[in-house]
Amino acid sequence: MSIIAGRIDYRLLHGIVQGFWCPTWAAQRTMIIDDDTANDEVRKSAMKLSKPSGQALSIITHDTAYANYKAGKYDGHTVFTIARDPQTFLDLIELGQSIPVLTLGLTEFPPEGTPGVQAGRRAFILEEDIPVYRKIAASGTKIEVQYMTTDKPVPISDYITL
Q1: Domain limits for position 71
Q2: What CATH number does the domain containing 128 carry?
Q3: What is the mean pLDDT of residues 85-93?
Q4: DSSP run (H or E) holding 103
Q5: Distance between CA 89 and CA 133 in Å, rounded?
Q6: How far apart are CA 42 and CA 141, in angstroms?
């Protein structure tokens, strides 16, 4: 197993993630899976400036991440994975990766009236993503809503039926 934890955060790597979450998981590698960021050299360079001390940083596309995991590139590594959406994590699980814990951190809030559920003060679960979360949970992944490491984690089942 290489993925020790995952986080859904629309800002990907920022001060809170770099300063609190990365040290909490103390992985050898922090991996950002996001096509837009991986294909934008300016954004990618800016994120590399906040690389967690003592950790490798990968900012890669979905296709590259999936190919690398299939090839066993990260076997023997510990990886903290960050993406914007739950589908990325379900795809990794379906490739055979185990994800012990997935934290729903900060999401972009959709326009008012969008079907879904607010999960805490900083996260929103789109109605269309509920089946994805259910499949992730069914794989054995513990899913929690938690913005800061100092916040009490709340099981996602407090917001949606799994």
Answers
A1: 3-158
A2: 3.40.35.10
A3: 98
A4: strand 101-104
A5: 9
A6: 34
pLDDT single digits (tens) 7-25? 999 999 988 998 999 999 9
CA nearest to 96, candidates 115, 68, 119, 117: 68
Looking at the structure of the chain, the number of domains it has is 1
**Contact indicator for 47, 13 with CB cutoff of 8 Å:** yes
Give the strands of the sheet with 154-155, arranged side by side: 56-60, 29-33, 79-83, 3-8, 101-104, 142-145, 154-155
Written as six digits, the tokens of 78 are 């510990």
Burial of 136-157, coded b for 16+ CB within 10 Å and e otherwise, reads bbebebebbbbbeeeeeeeebe
Using CA atoms, how far apart are residues 45 and 111, in angstroms rounded to an integer?
30
Q: H or E segment at 7?
A: strand 3-8
Q: pTM for the complete prediction?
A: 0.95
Name the residue among 32, 10, 15 with its Cα closest to residue 109.
Answer: 10
DSSP string, 45-102: HHHHHTPPTTSEEEEE-HHHHHHHHHTTTTTTS-EEEEESSHHHHHHHHHTT---SEE
